[in-house]
Amino acid sequence: MMRSWALPSAFVLVGAGLAAGSIARGDTGAGLFLLAVFLLLGGVNSPLLFPRSLTSAEALRRSEADGRPVVYWRPGCTFCIRLRLRLGARARRAYWVNIWRDPEAAAVVRSVNDGNETVPTVFVDGRAHTNPDPGWLRTVVGGG
After folding, report:
1. Which of 26, 76, 78, 136 could pair with 7 in a Cys bridge, judged by C-beta atoms 3.0 to 4.6 Å apart?
2. Which residues pair with 95 in a beta bridge?
């Protein structure tokens, strides 16, 4: 759990430090700008950007029942962020599993990626797709 927040926390702390330094030197505008940029980076890299994570077992069980895709991801992954942003509101039509919170999920990802924890890995109809094109996944979840 803590590992999920390490990168966003680092962005916020570094941004606060840089902003404080700029403000102390009398450059309030630059300080506020730096703080805003680093807060944005922290937010984009946080687990808050993603729908609520399920366990791998629960996501796979639900996917078998209703056919929705299962997306394995981890915080700080730029490809996961790109996929999430490109899906927009459609992201809620998939089940999201944070591999840093579920060791079983990490094992599932390693089993289909030659032992690597390569994410995003998306399961559709029981078939794994590593780092799929966001446009393709948009069509899978509906709404082209």
Report:
1. 76
2. 70
